[in-house]
Amino acid sequence: MGAQVRIGMIGAGRIGKIHTDNLLACPGAEVVAISDPCADAALEEWGAVRNIAVLPDSDAIMANPGIDAVFICSPTNTHVPLIKQAALVGKHIFCEKPVSLDLARTAAAVEAAHTAGVKLQIGFNRRFDHNFKRIRELVQDGTIGSLHMVKITSRDPSPPSPDYIRLSGGIFIDMMIHDFDMARYIAGCEIEEVYAQGEVLIDPIFATYGDLDTAVVTLKFANGALGVIDNSRQAVYGYDQRLEVLGARGSAAIANDYPNTAVISTASGIYRDKPLHFFLERYHEAYKEETRQFIDAIIHKRSVPVDGNDGLQAEQAALAALISSRLKRPVKVSEALQLSRQEGLSFA
Questions:
Q1: Is residue 179 part of a domain?
Q2: Contact 91, 70 (CB under 8 A)
Q3: pLDDT band at 56 (very low <50, low <70, confident <90, very high)
Q4: DSSP assignment, residue 222?
Q5: Structural domain contains residue 144
Q6: How many Å from the N-terminal Cα to the C-terminal Cα in the chain?
Q7: What share of the chain has pLDDT > 90, as a percent?
Q8: Closest C-alpha among 93, 81, 99, 148 to residue 119
Q9: Which of 43, 145, 259, 290 could make an S-S bridge to 249, C-beta 3.0–4.6 Å?
Q10: Contact status, residue 304 vs residue 121, Cβ threshold 8 Å
Q11: What is the pLDDT of residues 281-303, one digit of tens each?
Q12: What is the rounded CA–CA span in Å between residue 37 and residue 35?
């Protein structure tokens, strides 16, 4: 048997359980324990089936010297203290996005991991999707020539619950943060400036919590290229995930993934099934791949594919977008933190 990375899972919600099952099928990984303050008989049974200890809190995971790494899948407001705690005891860290709703706290967490010499990977799973990876390759190898434009569409099939909206931090940090990361990943450079506009067009509950449900952001990249991101909390036809790049030599685009390739043609029209329903179905394989690469980075002492700085840069772009939407003007990403303090704007 090769090297084994012993994992402690923190958070037994939907994404925690998905990561756990993916780890159980991942060569080189062993899930030792899972912790959740809401642990109950159902979770105990779930853990027993998988031979995983279920714990009421994360302290026992942090204190166990036999655990090499932690997966932080708990609520966002717990991420920073857990990252710092894990770093202090020398455990590698996988953390779901965003790291936090406060840029300074995120920077402190990233620095804590760096100082401790532990790996910190952020859960931007879309980078590991086969479609997006192909577009990245086409940009990187020069197939489309020098990059001119990146266009990203990301639309959910239905809005989240009011309780989720209340704690999410808003559309830019909760939803569009994936697209800011994807824009950086595809362009291969930083976002320098954003101009965001948004409205409440789907449900007034978003306005109740100071949020938006529909937004468009234009981007300026450090390499001179431009970008456009559009987000909607509700696309009645299903989960809509598309991307296009335009360059000096041509363009490349990816469409949605579907349950099948059947196209039905009748006298009444031509149609097909809706796209894969939501992110768990659409990015099923991407979740597996990000897990595999995290474990591989630990075993082979390599850099993680999506590090703490990637998380920090995406959050900074999201903060700039929030400020831009409120001030009704373009905002440089580099001035986001200072402006947020001046204007009293934050995701919290």
A1: yes
A2: yes
A3: confident
A4: T
A5: yes
A6: 46
A7: 89
A8: 93
A9: 145
A10: yes
A11: 778 999 999 999 999 999 999 99
A12: 7
- CA atoms lying within 13 Å on the CB side of residue 162: 6
Q: For the segment 218-264, what is each residue's pLDDT rounded down to a tens digit?
A: 999 999 999 999 999 999 999 999 999 999 999 999 998 888 888 88
293 and 316 in a common domain: no
Does 73 share its domain with 19?
A: yes
Q: How many CA atoms lie within 13 A of 48 on its CB side?
A: 7
CA dihedral sign, ordered 310, 312, 313, 318? positive
- The answer, yes or no, to whether residue 1 has pLDDT greater than 90, is no
C-alpha 112/C-alpha 87 separation (Å) is 6
Distance between CA atoms of residues 94 and 20, nearest Å: 12
Residue 146 CB contacts under 8 Å (≥ 6 apart), including other chains: 247, 248
Average pLDDT, the chain: 95
Residue 348 has pLDDT above 80, yes or no: no
CB 85 within 8 A of CB 118: no
Give the residue numbers spanning the domain of 139.
129-278+312-343
Residues 332 and 219 in one domain: yes
Which is it for strands 92-95 and 69-72: parallel, antiparallel or unpaired?
parallel
Does residue 44 share a domain with residue 157?
no
The pLDDT of residue 3 is 67
Same domain as 177, residue 221: yes
Same domain for 170 and 211, yes or no, is yes
Please determine, for residue 279, whether its predicted confidence score (pLDDT) is greater than 60.
yes
CATH code of residue 67: 3.40.50.720
Residue 96 phi/psi, 5-degree rounding, is -65, 155
Q: What is the distance between the alpha carbons of residues 323 and 343, in angstroms, rounded to a whole number?
A: 8
Q: What was the pLDDT predicted at 139?
A: 98
Contact 12, 37 (CB under 8 A): no
Q: Give the count of domains, the chain.
A: 2
